[in-house]
Automatic annotation (TrEMBL):
It comes from Sphaerobacter thermophilus (strain ATCC 49802 / DSM 20745 / KCCM 41009 / NCIMB 13125 / S 6022). Gene3D superfamilies: Immunoglobulins (2.60.40.10). Transmembrane segments: none annotated. This is YtkA-like domain-containing protein. It comes from the Bacteria. The lineage of its organism: Bacteria, Pseudomonadati, Thermomicrobiota, Thermomicrobia, Sphaerobacterales. InterPro entries: Ig-like_fold, Invasin/intimin_cell_adhesion, YtkA-like_dom. Residues 124-153 are annotated as: Disordered. It holds the Pfam family YtkA. Residues 31-112 form the YtkA-like domain.
Length: 153
């Protein structure tokens, strides 16, 4: 009986973890199933400072989707941060590349692409980007980006 109840506890823990992960990804804002959206970040691994986010949009036939309006929003996983916004422009092949995006702090980020298609359909696609490298003091100082001293990470 002792063994059995330990198994139950384990099951309960797994169930809670599963629910937690499911809640973390807000399914309501994901792209319609007939579109695939992927995000790529340069430099990789990501670090504090200027970065380029490439949003690739394809339809259900894997054909590039052109003529969309795309904006990228970056948020950190903790509260109280000013989001970072950048417009992304089509560079061909369904790839939209941001101009002027910048990671203002090291840590865990969430990138969201807001897409409006040529026909007016709009949706969002979010991806977690954990562990952006940089100063993790969270001092909100956006003026100093030339200090990339590695403090033992
Ligand atoms: Cu932060």
């Amino acid at each position: 009986m002792r063994q059995f109840s330990r198994g139950l506890v384990l099951l309960a823990v797994v169930a809670v973890l599963t629910v937690g992960v499911a809640c973390g990804r807000s399914a309501s804002s994901e792209a319609p199933s007939n579109y695939q959206v992927t995000l790529a970040v340069e430099p990789s691994p990501a670090a504090v400072g200027p970065a380029t986010v490439t949003v690739t949009i394809r339809d259900q036939d894997n054909a590039p989707v052109t003529g969309a309006t795309v904006e990228v929003e970056g948020n950190m996983s903790h509260a109280g941060m000013k989001p970072v916004f950048a417009d992304a422009h089509h560079q061909g092949d369904g790839q939209y590349v941001t101009e002027g995006f910048e990671f203002t702090m090291g840590g865990d980020w969430i990138l969201t692409a807001r897409v409006t298609l040529a026909d007016g359909t709009s949706f969002e696609h979010s991806e977690d980007l954990p562990g952006v490298h940089g100063d993790d003091k969270h001092n909100g100082d956006h003026g100093d980006h030339d200090d990339h001293e590695d403090a033992g990470h």
